[in-house]
Design goal:
By secondary structure, the protein is α/β, with parallel strands linked by helices. It has a nine-stranded mixed beta sheet with strand order 4-3-5-6-7-8-9-14-13. The two termini are 36 Å apart.
Length: 433
């Protein structure tokens, strides 16, 4: 039996899981109350004391945390251990003003990597595998997370990082990669290149672990068929550690949440009310074993459904559906988090009216981002050369704000359709959900 398949944990009874959660939650609330003045204030405002939280039943009494809190408390305001005990930071993709920075002690890194090792095992991984990691390395959690999980498992790890498709395919063939870890859109692109070059017979891939962005069942079938593998979903977010918060098993019908480390709730995004199991709503996480950055009731903004139906793999941890959308307007384009407000900020700073439209599509398995912007009447009388210089300026400004390329088209005043209700700023043609 593989070291990182721990049936005593992953297949524990519901009573056992609840007992762990009760005990760890009580300890965690005290840890946070004692060490994080920011959250202690939130608790005090709600009149909640640590002793009021005696089990998971009391979780609803605690205040929520949101990305806004993380930005307000940036950089150290939610740190629960002395900085000298931390060994790593990671950060979210995208840059809406202040970035979100998460801190890790060695213990936190170990548990994160263990969660990723579990995901690899659930995809059939063993120490005999060659794990090809082409998630980005660096501040993004994808590369470091799967890399760490593969090390823990004892597999041969190829820390490829993203990009350079020729080299990816060559190493895949030469070194016999058996498990591919990357975003689903990059997997689809790799699959296409491999087929075009007629290299299907030269690759030894058996499985892929794909996440960090939404992908449909159709996309799964396409990748599976082209590469001759089983494609598994993996979910996570920087604030809660990174990939591996939840992962798919052989059943491929939703992702098991590592409930010995995270308590999941589904809430109504409008009212904050906790919804019964099986209802669709916003996913909220409480991390009960993290030391440095232990968020309580963190609102992910991801909309999904939880289910405890018996799983054919034997694991008993609750399963989350693929995220079905977001309760905010965040887009994930080429794996990067993009908020329309960032685009608006750039436009307003450059003197454009706030009449614009964002078009997102997926062409040849790669995301495209187009921004149409209305000019002011004065700009409109500019020469064609002046307009194209303006477009280039905006492309550069957007690149430095978002970190990715957006194609810009300046259009005549009053050409973008006005809406009678909310402005339709985003047209997302990708069939993701
Ligand atoms: O995307 C962590 C990750 C890396 C997950 C590699 C899986 C694989 P962030 O950059 O903080 O972290 O973005 C987190 O990405 O709230 C979701 O909206 C979205 N997301 C992550 N995984 C999935 C998935 C990483 N499997 C945000 N399906 C989350 C759909 C996903 N959306």
């Amino acid at each position: 039996m593989e070291h990182y398949y721990q049936p005593e944990i992953e297949c524990a009874s519901q009573e056992q899981i609840r007992a762990w959660q009760d005990e760890r939650l009580v300890k965690q609330v005290k840890h946070v109350y004692d060490n994080v003045p920011y959250y202690r204030n939130l608790m005090e405002k709600r009149g909640v004391k640590p002793e009021d939280i005696r089990s998971v039943e009391d979780l609803h009494k605690l205040p929520f945390l949101t990305k806004d809190d993380l930005r307000e408390a940036y950089p150290y305001g939610l740190l629960a251990t002395p900085l000298k005990d931390c060994v790593r930071i990671q950060s979210t993709s995208g840059t809406t003003g202040r970035r979100v920075v998460a801190f890790y002690t060695q213990h936190d890194i170990d548990l994160w990597e263990e969660c990723c090792a579990r995901a690899l095992v659930a995809a059939g991984g063993t120490k005999d595998d060659v794990v090809h990691v082409c998630y980005g390395y660096g501040l993004f959690t994808g590369g470091p997370g799967l890399n760490g999980g593969s090390h823990k498992l004892g597999s041969l790890t190829l820390p490829m990082s993203s990009g350079n498709t020729d080299r990816q395919i060559q190493f895949m063939c030469d070194l016999g990669s058996t498990i591919l870890c990357c975003t689903p859109s990059y997997a689809a692109y790799l699959a296409e290149c491999i087929c075009e070059r007629g290299l299907q017979d030269q690759i030894k891939l058996k499985a892929g672990i794909f996440g960090a962005e939404a992908w449909s069942e159709e996309m799964r079938q396409d990748i599976q068929q082209k590469l001759g593998i089983k494609a598994y979903d993996i979910y996570g977010l920087t604030e809660i550690s990174g990939p591996g918060v939840a992962f798919e098993c052989s059943a491929q019908t939703g992702m098991h949440i590592n409930e010995d480390h995270f308590i999941a709730e589904i809430i109504d995004p409008e009212t904050g009310e906790v919804l019964p199991e099986g209802e669709k709503g916003e996913l909220v996480f409480t991390s009960i074993t993290k030391e440095a950055f232990p968020l309580l009731r963190y609102r992910t903004k991801d909309i999904c459904v939880l289910t405890r139906e018996k799983c054919s793999c034997g694991r008993t941890h609750v399963k989350m559906s693929k995220p079905m959308g977001r309760s905010d307007d965040m887009l994930i384009v080429k794996g990067v988090n993009v908020f329309p407000s960032q685009i608006e900020t750039v436009l307003l700073n450059k003197g454009y009216p706030a009449n614009y439209q964002i078009l997102v599509d997926r062409v040849n398995n790669s995301d495209t981002l187009d921004v149409e912007v209305e000019m002011t009447p004065e700009m409109f009388s500019d020469s064609v050369t002046a307009v194209s210089t303006r477009e280039k300026e905006l492309v550069d400004a957007l690149k430095s704000m978002l970190g990715i390329y957006a194609k810009v088209k300046l259009v005549a005043p009053k050409t973008i359709a006005r809406s009678e209700g909310k402005a339709v700023r985003i047209i997302d043609k990708r069939k993701l959900y």
